[in-house]
Design goal:
Length: 179
């Protein structure tokens, strides 16, 4: 009887340790690890391409039930005061769907805590310092504005074509009524 109780207690402790290890906090991602995650998660890659490299990137284990993958990547942009989480969902046995799970604003306390963990590429002189990051952000904003302007021009051209087609259809309809 004691042996059975000891065996069950040992198994429960082992399973509890495994569960605790899975729910532990994440770790910061290096540039190489972030690039690797970006190759697996298209939503993450698209966001980083649009908004630039994050100040802090970390990997968290997920204890969620399926269909979620076993981890998520959280990006922190201190200048934008933003925290964004990305994960993949499993469909038909493969992690095919890449999603942005959440986007939250950062508080001043969180920013102060995260500023000690800023990625090395942002902290080194050869990387991006605060001035260079501000210029980079301005350049990204200007590029985004250019893309929005180009999209607006394309939409305007499409609207002009649709209007011309509609007026042509109306005139053809009126011609067919005269016959």
């Amino acid at each position: 009887m004691r042996r059975g109780v000891a065996l069950w207690t040992g198994c429960a402790m082992l399973l509890g340790g495994v569960a605790l290890a899975k729910t532990r906090g994440g770790h910061d991602l290096s540039d190489e690890e972030l690039r690797s995650e970006m190759t697996r998660n298209r939503a993450l890659a698209a966001y980083v391409a649009r908004n630039g490299q994050p100040d802090v990137a970390e990997l968290h284990s997920l204890a969620d039930a399926p269909p979620w993958d076993d981890h998520e990547v959280t990006l922190y942009y201190l200048d934008m005061r933003k925290e964004i989480g990305f994960a993949r969902a499993w469909i038909l046995g493969r992690p095919e769907v890449a999603l942005q799970r959440y986007e939250r604003p950062l508080t001043d306390e969180q920013i102060a805590m995260l500023s000690t963990r800023v990625r090395k590429t942002h902290a080194t002189p050869s990387g991006l310092g605060p001035d260079a990051r501000a210029e980079d952000a301005a350049r990204r904003a200007e590029n985004a504005a250019g893309r929005v302007e180009a999209a607006a021009d394309a939409a305007e051209r499409a609207a002009d074509r649709a209007e011309a087609l509609a007026s042509k259809s109306v005139s053809e309809f009126h011609k067919s009524l005269r016959k």
